[in-house]
Amino acid sequence: MTASDPRLILVTGATGKVGRAFVARLLAEPSLAHWRVRALCHQRALPAHPRVESVHGAIQDRAVVQHALHGVTHVLHLATSKETPEDVMDVAVKGLFWLLEGCRTSASFRQFILIGGDAAIGHFHYPHPVPVVESQPHSAYPGCYALSKVLEEVMLQQYFIQYGLNGCCLRAPWILEKDDLRFHLSFGEDVFGAPRWCDLVGAEAAAAHAARGAVPVLLDAQGEGLLRNVVHVDDLVGAILAAIDHPRARHQVMHVGMDEPIDYVRLGAYLARTRACPLVPLRDSYHSTWLDNSKAKFLLGWRPQYDMAGLVESAWAYGRPDDDPRRVWYPG
């Protein structure tokens, strides 16, 4: 690609955690100066920029999607719906269907990138005695969100088969940024993600743990340190950029996560050693999993930059500016 070879990428869910990080990285990269971004926005909007335009509307509206796809060469599909049964099928099934239908009939379209999730293969709800690879059968855990991630992958794969559509799925585990990890380990009501430690131990114990700066150490169903897969948003964005127009990405599903999952026992020991945090072991029914990222590394030449220590240091060093209040649009 050259500066005379323009690209227009449609980003759904562009105002979310991954969308904002991706757009900022694309706009800042000199080699991508010939790229423009079109954001399909529902309620929020991206900051004004000469290379960014916004289309407002609902993704389940075919006319909105057709308008958003006009002249588009690439699609990055990030829009999702969490545990909201009244919305999930409109976003995950109907919205994705209109996107794929529009892409397959478009003269300008080149590539579709879906950001999937390890919810499609059960996350930490089911035992996996060996590393989880992309051939693992779909196994959604209870709830509509995990089901939606399965349906998205299946629909995209069928468009590969039915129409030869060019695309790939980057299957990501829990996505962290900024101070997310620090707030994940909070015993307060401000805890990020699950489990909610304050609910597990009760309000009185949670307040006492929070007052002394204690952090939870999650143990799995066997009483060992839980292994949980995560990815820093910067590494996921790096994988997206690596996948764009990469011939080896065609029709592939690839796991995009850290080289090793977080081990809560090792994480606790690191925080105790580096920050003198008291530790509170908590056992739950979750199962350890190890998401194998070898395929993405092999096919894309991508390498995650963050490990456990890097996640801790970046989360604890992050100073949130006044114009960036901590706001959780959904808990995970």
Structure at a glance:
With 332 residues, the chain is α/β, with parallel strands linked by helices.
CATH fold naming of the domain at 7-177 and 230-258 and 287-305:
Rossmann fold
CATH class of the domain at 7-177 and 230-258 and 287-305: Alpha Beta
What is the number of beta strands?
A: 13
Estimate the global geometry from the Cα principal axes: globular
Please tell me how large the radius of gyration is. 20 Å
List keywords for this structure.
two-stranded parallel sheet; 332 residues; 18% strand; 13 strands
Please characterize this protein's 3D structure.
This protein is an alpha/beta fold. It has a domain at 7-177 and 230-258 and 287-305: 3-Layer(aba) Sandwich (Rossmann fold). 36% of the residues lie in helices and 18% in strands. The chain has a 7-stranded parallel sheet with strand order 3-2-1-4-5-6-11, with helices on both faces. Strands 7-10 form a two-stranded parallel sheet. Strands 8-13 form a two-stranded parallel sheet. Strand 4 (74-77), helix 3 (85-104) and strand 5 form a beta-alpha-beta unit.
Write the layout of secondary structure elements.
Blueprint: E1 7-12, H1 17-28, E2 35-41, E3 52-56, H2 62-69, E4 74-77, H3 85-104, E5 111-117, H4 144-163, E6 167-172, E7 174-176, H5 180-184, H6 197-201, H7 203-211, E8 215-219, E9 227-228, E10 230-232, H8 233-243, E11 252-255, E12 262-263, H9 264-275, E13 279-283, H10 294-300, H11 308-317
Parallel strand pairs: 1-2, 1-4, 2-3, 4-5, 5-6, 6-11, 7-10, 8-13
Antiparallel strand pairs: 9-12
